Input
Amino acid sequence: MEIALESLTKSYDTVAAVRGVTLTVHTGELLTLLGPSGCGKTTILRLIAGLERPDAGHVRFDGKIVDDLPPEERGVGLVFQNYALFPHLTVAQNIAYGLRIRRRRRPWWQRPLAKREPGGSRLPMTEGEPGASQLPVTGREPGVNRLPVAEQVRQLLELVGLPGYERRWPSELSAGQQQRVAIARALAPRPRALLLDEPLSALDARLRDRLRLEIRHLQQQLRLTMVYVTHDQTEALSMSDRVAVLRDGRVEQVGTPAQIYEQPKNRFVATFVGDANLIPVEATGLGSRLADVRQDQAHEGAVYVVRPERLRLVAVESSAAGGSTAAATGEGETSGISNPGVGAADAGVRVTPDRPLLRGQVLASEFLGSSTRLHVRWQDRELVVQLTASAPVAEGTYVWLTFDPWSSVRLPAG
Ligand code: ATP
Output
């Protein structure tokens, strides 16, 4: 089902929670609403579910305005952060609670698109992947109206990776298992779309990582339209088809995770989604030259958005005090630089006249296993550099950094 929001507006007393949001969630798409606390994510979800009425604007399902439709007739499922399972009902009873039997040729949640790996691991398989269309349909698929409730519950539990858990009580489940049951319960009435409000935020990091993969897999397997609310950028980037970044009740940018990360439209998106070094164009000494080429953007006050992994370490000075053996010419050509601390992945970075060369002092060096993050004081700001090389660089050391301005996003002043 396609969900379209048209100039959607909602206020609570004096608080303007949602201000003219226009957004389309395509059929079978997982769209994430990402933004800081209080930006209106939950309110948008509640407007879609029919739990709130818009002050202005419309919600359309497959083109039809549903503003007057009560929540129970909208056919959308909801999953919240706190599972909301009935403690006095077993897992099976919790799922059966939401089960409304409808006459359909085949229940959509039985349509297998994805291959089950032997041993029960659930690996994502999208429609585009080879072989997806030839996947076997297991057994004959009876109409759901002929399936006993117990069988539907069994299938739903299998779908969420909890086969055989029918008789457990919610108190006998881990947090992750409870959330899986909550998802099964939301899927039971075969909703046309599933809305999830921070469903993983109460779980520990490892479980979150695993469950977000599972939710994504489920969504792809069922080709389900899904609206997912989070303030966690990693979650948003890793599992979404598209992300809508919100601020103060407005959509700042909508795009694929790569677009949002690589081509942020403004400073808010650049800094909210991932770490961003904002490097003034003037300070690089390249402003005027590049301004000749990119006349569409104001020159003064403009910044480059340089992600930590795009900042390259050119050289490490041998003396922390700055009495260096390294040197760089005014043209940006490195010469006579000794770089004892530069790892293989970053060695050999050639600095050409069209690349800026920044000299800064290491404030902290974090070894993260697969990478090292340097915090570097440069002029009046702190830059974050992510190195694949793991050579430690001592605090206080002076380093030389560069980046490619031509492949960096340049944001105008303001
Ligand atoms: P969070 O990530 O903290 O859940 P959110 O992005 O989901 O935040 P909303 O819950 O939609 O934000 O709230 C948006 C704004 O509307 C906030 O300023 C909030 O305080 C306000 N708000 C939400 N619900 C109500 C309500 N029932 N009455 C009054 N104000 C409300």
Remarks:
- Residues 12, 15, 17, 35, 37-43, 231 surround adenosine-5'-triphosphate (CB under 6 Å).
- The domain at 277-411 is CATH 2.40.50.140 (OB fold (Dihydrolipoamide Acetyltransferase, E2P)).
